[in-house]
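Key idea: predict the complex, not the pieces.
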Amino acid sequence: MADAPETSVDETPRGFIKSPLDFGGGLFLLALAVVGYIGAFNLPYGHMNSIGSGLLPKSVAILVGAFGLGIMLQGLFIEGDRLESWGIRGPIFVLGAVLVFAFAIRPLGLAIAGPLCVIVAAMADKDTRPVELVIFSLIMTALCVGLFKFLLRLPIPVFPPGYGPF
Amino acid sequence: MLKRVASALAGLACLVAASLPAAAEYPERPITMIVPFAAGGPTDIIARIVGEHMAKTLGQAVVVENVAGAGGTTGSTRAAQAKPDGYTIMMGHMGTHGAAPALYPNLKYDPAKDFAPVGLAAGTPILIVAKKDFPAKDLKEFVAYVKANEGKVNEAHAGVGSVSFTTCTLLQSIMGTKTGRVAYRGTGPVLNDLVAGQVDFACDQIVNLVSQIQSGNIKVYAIATEQRSDTLPNVPTSKEAGLPEFQVSAWNAIFAPKGTAPEIVAKLNAALVKALDDENTRKRLLELGSVIPDTAGRSSDALHKLVESEVARWTPVLKAAGVTAN
Amino acid sequence: MTDLVSNLSLGLQVALSLKNLGLCFLGCLIGTLIGVLPGVGPIATITMLLPITFGLDPVGALIMLAGIYYGAQYGGSTTAILVNIPGEATSVVTTLDGHQMAKQGRAGVALGIAAIGSFIAGCVATVIIAAMAAPLTKMALLFGPADYFSLMVLGLMFAVVLARGSVVKAIGVILVGILLSTVGTDLESGEERLTFGWSEISDGLDVAVVAMGMFGFAEILRNLESTQARDVVHAAIGNLLPNRKDFGQAAAPIARGTILGSILGLLPGNGAVLGPFASYTLEKKLAKDGSRFGKGAIEGVAGPESANNAGAQTAFIPLLTLGIPPNAVMALMVGAMTIHGIVPGPQIMTKQPQLFWGMIASMWIGNLMLLIINLPLIGLWVRLLKVPYRLMFPSIVLLCCIGIYSINNSPTEVIMTAGFGIFGYALLKFGLEPAPLLLGFVLGRLMEEKLRQALVISRGSFSTFVDCQLWSGACARPLSTGLLVLSAIIVVIAVLPSIRKSRDEVFVED
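Result:
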């Protein structure tokens, strides 16, 4: 991110938080630590000659939290980068495409899940061309069927169960 | 335009409906056999050897699908919930259909009630082995030494829920000992550290151990079956060696989901029996050191009884050891 | 020596038969293919191809399966370099500089040096296996749980050096990786940890799921945002193959990577995974200008790739000489041998010499074949980069989905990958690096296992890790002690300059 030419980092005055990037990163680590600690809350520490299942997750979670706090503090006092803005369109459609694939592959098979996945993913981009995309998604799927089903013989359903030769 | 599409779709639907399995002879497409463990392990190998011959009898491929996880219970759950049409069957074993109810309180299936048992395929005997310079000469000395040195001796197992873990839990409860129990991820690392002498003893299936025993890398004390094994004829049975209660075999058996039509189960059982009678299949199974069930032991009923007796046997032993998964 | 020659000629006779040559080629081709496809690993493919090998004789079957295995190691680097998707933990390191090189229009050079480095490493490793397999086996047995734990600690120190930015952030992220590695059923007690009652993750998170989400999907999300960085190559595509200067820079890293990888590949419990990381660390520290690393330094591709391939090859030693598989793929090879009626074990060398030496000879031939397959393909790969991004990224998404699904035939893992995509995207947005996290994840699980094994064996005595007396020099565990000392040295070297730097920064601002 060194090659971001337009945002001149050090010119604009900062508020209370000198480095929002570090502060946010620290906060993120802290949040992960809390989730991790809660997840391991009921596990025993055990004792030295048989360490319990909780010792490592809990102590690592505490360490993560400590580092998170440290990075947050650093963000408060040491000048640094701003937070980047988050995209919305990209995550929704790309990850949506993954979810579509996950839910469609078993009941519908690759022949349907494949084009759906490609088309939904492509919507993440502004300059998609519908006709090209549909044709491309079908070709990609056909290639994948040939590759995964016939060449590599992976047990992937191609058609909905019961509705096709495989 | 729209009309034409609609009529084409209707035509397609008819076509599809016609191709649906109606009264046609089972099986008319490949059968999936779920193996609830990773490929290459003893259960997987037995499933593949038996499945290969069953496919010849059934006239359709038997495709092995490995669904490993949670001591085999992930794959077993999937098999229990599969459509009972005979196209999804599974190779269950001592763990998934015997020990699991005691180890996994949240188990999503009942080994005895949620399956239509097809038949017993093959069992692999369990051995008691130790590092090569372990000070005991025979099983009696072994038991005495472990009892006297509980605080020093370490057993290695392949993780809670594994065959080596459950069988050694049984051994420890029979001996009345509580040694250190070192957990490894899989039998490979267990064997590595046993050969290296980092740990003292272990229980495991004969397939995994034969070559290490034959080359003198580890010591063997007993085989936990009624009869000696042809693969290792010099190894005494646990009965001969003075620990008759330690009788255990990692049996593998084919199950179909509950509700599978009896004709289909019968057909599968017949194919299994035929496979177990085939000379080449027998030879390959015996090379692994496995035990092939006798004619009486291959029926669906015999398997049903076996499952019930195994669940009843493992539950108290494992509960007493105080381990539960999840 | 005459023994070695006669053994090798026996092996060559076996491996050079027309049928075995064909099988070797087929294996290498399939391996390259699955390596290039993100997510589809050698495990799923070998599992699926097992039944096909039933009809072959054991030697032929194993030659083909081995070809798939090291072919996949080769192919994996292609995806890492071209689209920044590491199919396996070992190719994570290759993404760091390899993908940067691709962005600068040097994809061909990166792919070329990876292929050539791998070839050299493979040749050396094969010779090592042929000449010293038996004595080297003992090394695998020297490492007890305590030594292994210390080795993992050393590995984590590599992760600190791996980081491009702040050491504090790097350590924080490594710890997150370790935390993630504890998700799943506890090996020793059977309790579920950090699963929040979700049984789908009771077996822990798959490395491919984490890596594909954090690198593959997160990278796509980032590329979609800036029109500037979208098309992978926005510089003109330069040489297709490395030139003399590139070779000059890469020669020493290839040699060092080969040695490191060969040694680490011998260790049980997948020590090969450390090879690329160790090599990268070493090259970064040895380089005159360490800051070039992460920005397309050719040494950062050549060294780790050689280490990776050398390790993949020497990992066969414990399997061939002891019959003990050091990782999941090798466990599958054991299964394949057993199905073919061969009991893998110490006697294989004497009882089945044509199998043992045939496989070794085929490894060398396979490496040559891989070079022949891969060098011409480079042109094709580089041309693939010219596919417009609007079509490229949906294809990558689809290929990743199919790949992940094929690992365990599980739609849930596909969903989890999407989750790690968001996670990786968040990391990028917060300026945290995913590579050290992944190393923490890979090593964390092993480290905890080994720590707990060592403590059960020593009955809770921590001195088992450094059982040494300074005055007499007597060491009960010299390996463990040495590794821990080395870790301490590395961490001091890594942290000192950054402390100095941040002090300087504070100074400037005051």
